[in-house]
Specification:
binds 1,3-dihydroxyacetonephosphate; four-stranded parallel β-sheet; alpha/beta; binds iron/sulfur cluster; 3 domains; 15 helices; Rossmann fold
Length: 309
Amino acid sequence: MSAAPPEERNELVERIARLRRERQAVILAHNYQLGEVQDIADFTGDSLDLSRRAAAADARTIVFCGVRFMAETAKILAPDRTVLLPDAESGCPMADMIDGVQLRRLKAEHPGAAVVCYVNSTAEVKAECDVCCTSANAARVVASVPADRELLFVPDRYLGGHVQRTSGRPMTLWPGYCPTHARILPEHVERRRREHPGAVVLAHPECRAEVTALADHVLSTGQMLRFVRESDATAFIVATEVGILHPLQRDNPGKRFIPASEQAICPNMKRITLEKVLWALEEMQTPIEIPEEVRRRAEASLRRMLDVG
Ligand code: 13P
Ligand code: SF4
């Protein structure tokens, strides 16, 4: 998927490269970004890869091509850097499905319980939880909580449900979900399997339980990229946001990738274009600001996650 015509794109890419040097900036991009944005990034990856990059960044400015909770995570981990989100409206509906008031109420109903929160959440919610996780390390994070401690998992009922089924650990799940992944239905996967017998089915844990039940492997976006690189298979049905097809195809030109559903498009991830990356660097917009008291508590939850690995 591409937004700018080729001549315009080349000029934009050159201007971005010049300003990136002048501003001593690093550009991070999530695997669901437009292909042309992924191609100019210094680093691309899943939420866990990118939060590690942000924590280790020595650049003065981080341009975060992703959605708001990802840029906030970078700011929480690198508070002395300027973190820019090239489109201020690039949010995540799942992250907005629980707020601090709702989480405090849930905690009051379950005194003593530990709260694991998916990084797809606001800074305020991260500040209220015990430990964060991403789709790549959720199982390890849950296993790090003492077995006799009650567990609350927010906000993704599908990621939480997947960890609950694979670990056998009971959890209270908040009923949040990703509207983009919810569009992928089991009948889409079944149809693709009929059309492409022998293809390996990869699904993101944000998919409905009926979809992950049909998958050969349930993986984060970064894990999908690593899995495919090492696999001898040549065809893959991919049940996640379609942006992942760009790095999959780029890294594996001899392999075939079939989206489980072409409708699995996250509109927020597609808001960032090369023009907006350039404007972000020109105008230093939009800087992420988080009240220090919230940031400090959210950082503790993220650091506990990074310590688990
Ligand atoms: P990953 O961490 O697997 O890249 O997923 C992030 C996300 O928002 C999925 O919808
Ligand atoms: Fe949020 Fe879903 Fe978009 Fe990921 S794909 S950013 S969870 S809306």
